[in-house]
Amino acid sequence: MIETIKTTPYTDQKMGTAGLRKKTKVIMQPNYFENFIQSIFNTIPALNQKSFLIGGDGRYFNKVAIQKIIKIAAANQVKKLYIGQNGLVSTPAGSHIILENKLDGGFILTASHNPGGIGGDFGIKYANATGGQCQPAESQAIYEQTQKINEYKISDMPDIDLSQIGLTRCEDMEIEIIDPIADYIKLMESIFDFNQLRALLKSDFRFVFDAMNGVTGPYGKKLFEEILGAPAGTVIHATPLEDFGGLHPDPNLIYAKPLVDLMFSDNAPDFAAANDGDGDRNMILGRRFFVCPSDSLAILTDHYQTIPAYRNGIFGVAKSAATSMAVKRVAEALKIGYYEVPTGWKYFIHLMDSQRITLCGEESFGTGASHIREKDGIWATLFWLSIIAQTRKSVKDIALDHWKKYGRSYYLRNDFEKIPQETADKLMSDLQNKLPSLIGQTFGSYTVNEAYPFIYNDPVDHTSTQNGLIVHFKDGSRIVYRLSGTGTDGATLRTYIERYVTDDLLENPEDMLKELCGVSRQISEITIRTGKEQPDIIT
Length: 539
Ligand code: G16
Description:
By secondary structure, the protein is of the alpha/beta class. The chain is 34% helix and 27% strand. The strands form five sheets. Strands 2-6-5-3-4-9-8 form a seven-stranded mixed β-sheet, sandwiched between helices. The protein is globular and about 70 Å long. The N and C termini lie far apart (52 Å). The mean pLDDT is 97.
């Protein structure tokens, strides 16, 4: 039976950089989740001809949320749902499932790299038929629905068993529980040379893949250990846990510290990669070596011919404005297209669909390509393994060769967290207003030669988006300021700091950027405005 439940709007259901992300307890408020799902359905015509994917990273509330979407979808007469077995689907595999099966969209239930559990975060990444997160106009339409919703429809059908692969029918809707892993692995096999990878992983090469108790554990076990022959135990933190075992499933130097400590110890393996909760972010480590994500994008791009799928050429490459300029130098040398977009993977989608780019990446530990419309942590890991297999060099030597050829962009991101929203908004608007007056000013050894808000004009739909403020110095150094769109606790000011050099290639980034970090604080007046003398997180 279908029930119509009266409800009232929640004012805070605007999607951020990647869907709706909130404290789990916020999402669990009465009707909060239901309102949001119904609001999405309200923007989609002819639901009885539409099919969607549902899955998540396994965090707390995942299974409850899935049953709710099933019942709301059935009541709204959706044609068919594809659901990952046991409610699990990684964000990249989800993108592939949507594209492969020509679905109309998908709900990936995740707060990505944010911690899980009842005291943690929960989120909904809503993808459209492109296999990527919906575009700003769609999220605006959904937001407008959330602000006027007064009822939602829900079926009183019993819960569906998510553990059994197969087809069932409820109300008039088909439900297919699918294996979320098999097709994704086939896709990887169509891109990479599995024989070459197998030879490497079966040799004495030592590799660790840290799934951080997120969704990529089962993917990694199947792919690296069963199919590519890496020894059992290669994949660590391999079981998706509702609270990620207390871990903060964010693959960076701070939250993946045990892995970092291992890689900097005497017993370090040759190579390590970590993925975040939903499997789209990646961190790459060599023995006593960390690969900055901006460099990772540049190095992968420079080695594209290593990979069978790209051997015949690639269209071009794109990065977010906050990502370092390293990949631009590679694009120029390779004479391929180059684009700079706002933060948020959705901005790459038009560039991929219009065949302007093949590869893309962001400083926030995201790298990917046009095989799907999301960033892809396992793909990045396989790409690095392929470069190692082909060059027979260590990660550090691969990076050093790169810097010798192109110079090095030393790069750090400083995050100032839990700032009251009003303080952060005022800081950004005041900073934007004073940008013109910065030009020509000298701060220590750095003189500003350009300062402007980053404005992106989408070449496909001709919309423009403003995202971040850029201060450029005479020596090529840059500072980018922007507010995070994924936090759930006040505002986070991110400052991205970059300095380009052609010698001193193996110095410590914190030393090389010490003065510039100070300049970034001075320009933003962060200390005066928030009392914070240092960033909360440096990555
Ligand atoms: C999400 C988006 C990314 C984006 C990141 C930025 O990542 O998918 O494209 O780079 O947010 O986050 P912030 O706005 O906090 O800087 P994820 O992995 O959280 O989905």
